[in-house]
Amino acid sequence: MAYRFNLFPGSPTIRDMFSKRAIRYQWRDNGPVITTAILLICVAVWIVELLLWLLWPSGLNELLGFGMFQPMHAVSRPWTFITSMFLHQPTSLMHILFNMISLWAVAPVLERLMGHWPFLALYLLSGIGGGLGMMAWGVITPNGSGWLNASYGASGALFGLFASLLIVYRRIGIDISSMMVWMVINFAMPFVMRNIAWQAHVGGFLIGALFTWLLISGAHSLRGKSLTYRTAVYGAIVFVLLVVAVLLCDMGNPAEYSACCSACRETITG
């Protein structure tokens, strides 16, 4: 049988997304239920952002200020590692559209192969890895300007999915032509557009690759265990590594340094 090129392999129809019967079937069949939920949440949040931008700009600033990720304040506001994944630029249709098209093209295949909970773990860990990438850039930049960059969007998590697909497809020998279209476009975006958090792309890609590699080729003693069990074990390990790496990066946080200096001055002058 000839191979049929498809940019959206494994993706359900729009009608199936809102059918209770189809959702129940998809859940039993490892269909993209989590993928659909992520997509709908992102779109719903973007619509709220858009309405706030049109009707209540100060409310939009409050929402973005609460949810977006900024390396300098990441440790004191840890929820932004997660909330930033579901925010998109309200004044740009292309931001939400391109990310959701990429999600719809890539994620259903992975969720079918991995199962719902391993896929969700991969997505969230990769998104957190995107935040770590931003913090690492803050440490690397000589003038510390990287600590001031704020970012939001699903691209860090998406790059973790790209890395996972490369590893999984290479392992099982499936043609990845359709996936390569989205990967090449996403990797090229920072070179043709400004204000794209490529640091989050790198962080998400590396963490997604690490987590997937552990699931497939981890400790020999765990290879006979169920995927759910391995997800729990390796997910916990990767999460702990992320926390440690974030705390190590935060040691170079200029805000922490300034706070310590202020405390010292107060102690000395008090």
From TrEMBL:
Entry's transmembrane regions: 33-56, 93-110, 117-140, 152-169, 176-192, 198-216, 228-248
Annotated keywords: Hydrolase, Membrane, Transmembrane, Transmembrane helix
Domain of life of the source: Bacteria
Coiled-coil parts of chain: none
Domain Peptidase S54 rhomboid, chain residue ranges per copy: 77-216
The keyword Transcription regulation is annotated on this UniProt entry: no
Alphabetized Gene3D superfamilies for the sequence: Rhomboid-like (1.20.1540.10)
Keyword field contains Transmembrane: yes
Record's bilayer topology term: Multi-pass membrane protein
Listed GO MF terms: serine-type endopeptidase activity
Family listed: Belongs to the peptidase S54 family.
Descriptive protein name: Rhomboid family protein
